[in-house]
Amino acid sequence: MQNPTFVFLSMATVTEKGIAAGIATFIAKYIESQFRTSAGEAAMLMGLVSIPGATIGTLLGGYLVKRFELQVRGIVKMCTVLTLMTKVSLLMFLITCDDVSMVGVNTAYHNR
């Protein structure tokens, strides 16, 4: 606990893994309900975005460390900034679509 580099990298890893686990569990259902897609289409969309995104992110992170010759302190700063950017971008989950009108569920019958 006395090594700040270890503490901050551990906190970043825990935050990232927690977010990834939560998103991986529920994102397909969220996409399905919010954007009115089928379950298969939502799962395919999630896979098409997350797999290349994780691959590109890992490769880009390694490239940036090598390109800018970052030492431990620079890596910690980069990790902290990117983690904060990730948390801010989670606000996109507040985007919703209007509810679909369904007679008898959220719209009254007009002729009884």
Mean pLDDT: 84
What does the largest sheet look like? none
Gap between N and C termini, in Å?
69 Å
- The coarse silhouette is elongated
Helix and strand element order: HHH
Total number of strands: 0
What does this entry show, briefly?
This protein is an all-alpha fold and 112 residues long. Helices cover 70% and strands 0% of the residues.
Structural notes for this entry:
The chain crosses the membrane at residues 6-31, 43-63, 75-95. Keywords: Disulfide bond, Membrane, Transmembrane, Transmembrane helix. One of its GO terms (cellular component) is membrane. This is Solute carrier organic anion transporter family member 4A1-like. The chain has one domain. It is 70% helix and 0% strand. It is built from three helices and no strands. The radius of gyration is 20 Å and the shape is elongated. The N and C termini lie far apart (69 Å).
